[in-house]
Amino acid sequence: MNSFPTKESDVKVYVYYDTLHVRKQYERLIYDLPGFLSALGGSLGLYLGLSCFGVFEGVVAGYARLRGNGGQKEQQHADKIAGKNSKSDEQCQQEMVENEGGGE
């Protein structure tokens, strides 16, 4: 069997159009170079800002753990605000004083 095309395998295709009207389409860039760099810089700035905020929160949490309270005061305060704390205000204040070392 011959692998090269022969006259027998030639195909003709006839294409007919309804109209001869031509529609031209043009493409243009949405961003020019300064606009693209500005959008990229804004996105990177937002990402960097959120990253710095996350690092700052980590440093604060690490400092709280090094002090020894492990963020318990902050959690008690958050629970109190959320209404989850069954302790009275006086009990919470007494615990905070004891944790700070003022109750020794």
Summarize the structure.
By secondary structure, this protein is mainly α. The chain has helices spanning 33-67, 72-82, 89-100. It is rod-shaped and about 100 Å long.
Mean pLDDT: 77
- What is the structural class? mainly alpha
Secondary-structure element order, as H and E?
A: HHH
| End-to-end Cα distance | 102 Å
Poorly predicted segments: none
- The proportion of strand residues reads under 5%
- Overall shape: rod-shaped
Number of helices: 3
State the oligomer: single chain
Radius of gyration: 36 Å
> Describe the biggest sheet?
none
Considering DSSP H and I runs of 4 or more, what fraction of the residues is helical? 55-70%
Number of strands: 0
Can you walk through the features of this model?
- It is a single chain.
- This protein is mostly helical.
- It has a domain at 70-104.
- It has helices at residues 33-67, 72-82, 89-100.
- It is rod-shaped and about 100 Å long.
- The chain starts with 32 loop residues before the first helix and ends with a helix.
Layout: helices, strands, pairs:
Elements: H1 33-67, H2 72-82, H3 89-100
Considering the chains and any ligands shown, give keywords for the structure.
104 residues, mainly alpha, 0% strand, rod-shaped
